[in-house]
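Summary for the funding panel

The consortium committed to producing paired sequence-structure records for every protein in the target list. Below we show the first two records in order, beginning with the earlier of the two.
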Amino acid sequence: MFGSSAIFHCLFALSWRLATCQQQGLPPPPGYPNCTRGSLPKQFMYKVSVTDRDPVPNGAALISHVNGTSVFNFSFTTAWFPAPPGSGTPDGLIVRVVECSPNHHSCAGVPHPEWTNAGALATVGADLSATSTPTTQHITQHNIRWPGTPGPPHSDTGRWGAADPRLTFRAKDKTYYLTWDNCTHNCEPTRSTLLSTTKDPFSADGWTLHGPVLPGAYTGGASLLFRDDAGDDATHYAFVSDSNTAGTIKLAESHDGITWKLPTNVSRQTFMTGRPDCWDKAVATGPQPERLSNGDYLYVYNIDTGFPYHPNPLGRCSVGWAILDGSDPTRVVARADEPLITPTLPWEQCPHKGYTCQETMVVFSTGLKPLGNDEFYVIYGGADTDVGLTRIKVDVNAH
């Protein structure tokens, strides 16, 4: 039986979803009868709340061609990294940038037609502290990095590019582990998640490319969790998407952080699946898991309903959360009954694709910045066009 606070929470969540649909001109959302409430061991322990939907002044994006923070028309999926130890430099972001979208209009005359469709990665300094207004350095052509490999040869047609960065800093060896996707036009017929490492993400020459996370597999991104606190022989984990949009998140394991394999036990190869009658019918990996004050982990993940976009109350892409067990992070012990972030801001909605935005109704996260006290910035791409921030709070003793 629910108490009055639980009833209020449910009514508030329902009214929020109804208001969102009214703003978008969509039908009211259905309930989510097949979610996990009460079925996971710590479901009632946790509450994850948005405390500041957009901490950038005036409802703006953090990075956008429109507001003059990037020379590229489209800057979107973004990984966060802490400053190199002892460097005195700011924290940083690795941002997927695209000059134009040949799916929507002509890209004649762009400087880099060889990666126009898939994109490239730009590294930029950022101030995302808990107490100041979020700011980043200006993104230009000089910020482009190809992590451990030459860029695609200059040509008049798209060859390949870099997509969807995710990054984990490993304190034990003071190394940054970047996963990023190498793909051809629209990532068909191939897409491969690669691993690169460096001691300094700001250095263009310091990267080493190690190859695919799962050689021979079609993968759509990977987030890494290192378990060095569990001993020298600890198993480390990679959470790997198996789709260009959303499907299942696979589990891979490693003892050195470089070579990753699926578990020999087939039943352990799947980390997370969609829930057919819930809001997250198919799932895609998010940013690196981050430890909470009680030892468990926050894991942010995405949904992608696919393209072309078919109007629905959740948009094409939305963001959710799960809690992973601190002793065994392959176990999900709590999971969102409703989406955490949906595309509600104007620059996330993109009603008309073209030179100003790429994809309709998208919020897709590949970055997570800890702020202390179980608070975080979720860093995401809005409409595959701009970089946004949302501040969230995890209550580890909600009930």
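The next record, for a separate protein in the list, is shown here:
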Amino acid sequence: MRSLQPIVLWFHACSCIRHIALGAADESTLESTAVTNTCSTSELSSSCNGGEDTGRVILDNDDSEENLSSWEFMNAFKQLGSSWSHVISEYVSVVNNADGKELRGDIYAENGLEEGLKLIKQLVTEAAEISSENELIWSFRTSPLSDLGKTVDDLLLAFLRWSIVDNQLTNGHSRDDNGCSLIGGINHFPPKPHKINVSKAFRRLTSYTQWMESVSQDLLGEPLTYRSISPSLSTFSIHVTHDDCGRLVWWLNLGKTQKFQSASETTRMFVWVAHLLFLDNAAQTKGLVVIDDMSEIGFWDYMTLLPLNVGISVDRFLISVTPLKAKNVALMHRPKWAEIAYGLLSWFLTERMKSRVTMVEKGEEEAALNNVVGGSAFIPVGFGAVKGEIEKDIISQYR
């Protein structure tokens, strides 16, 4: 689908847009407000801004960040070798190329997943037969399937389920037919037998295989396993659980996140985690919830966790490539700069995207998470300042 640079995950510009778009990118797009791209994707240097270094903003303490204006926030990206308009244009491109549309001439499976699996396997075979290079790409040799106890059929089914899920939200709160009263509700499927757009699933799968091939140098060599990525994983505070509605929940705590290792090591780690997420049956059938405790993290600490181009590349992977559908995103302990970032981003977001976000205010964490995941029985121990009872999450079973 597109050639991309190596990845890491989730941490640049503002996590809001990544998480929000993750849920809506398959059907909706960012608003078409004009944004000028000041340089190409690979030119993340001062040349993006004409080589000038005007308007430098130094944000090195809490006071300066507390008094940060929207203009200063946008100018601050110059010190990262980019520009705010470039970052926005990249995200517009990411979301608008999500390949989640129904197209004339698409192939459908009329009788459910079994028929859909046969049809998509036939498309995979035909694609692999085009050339020896394609045969290699479509072998899924870089996917960590065996380590996660999954097969190629499991991977193909994830893309088929993605193509038929109908996310139904009403202002972010949905009490659906299956009895889930938590914010965001769960995925909805059409009545059985499911009519599946196999072509739509295959387009997403094609994006996946080509993206995985673009980072194959980082993934080949040592097998991609939990053991191989655990040193990198230990630098990030990540948990994966299920909530009271059976949805998969991805917990991130930036306050406990340390500096990343090499880009390659972090790429491997996040590719493994992404597969853990989208190959989870609950994520496919019920949906994904993301809870991000920003822990009042400083602007420069946040923005320098990962290289900017790497962060954008992984966002492209999550939003435009993987078969993930987010039902809700909860953002906790947001610093001032993140409030400004979301305010600026809101101009480019559809109402549907905005409806997927839960802003958790100070002092309301416990009540909010009760409504998001169902209470302390579904919260990992040590997450933020809230009471949690889960001592071993899904990742721990691989230790």
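Regarding this second record: Confidence is low (pLDDT under 50) at residues 1-18, 24-63, 167-177. The beta strands are 108-109, 196-197, 238-242, 248-253, 288-293, 326-332, 357-360.
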